[in-house]
Amino acid sequence: MEAATEEFVAHGPDGTTVERIARRAGVNKERIYHYYGGRAELFAVVLREQFATTAGAVPLDATEPDAVGEFAGRMYDYSRDHPQFVRLLMWEALTHTGEVPDEDQRRATYEGRTASLAQGQAAGRLTSTLAPAELHLVLLAVAAYWTVLPQVARMVTGTSTDDAADAARQRAAVVAAARRLAAPD
Question: pTM (2 decimals)?
Answer without folding.
Answer: 0.90
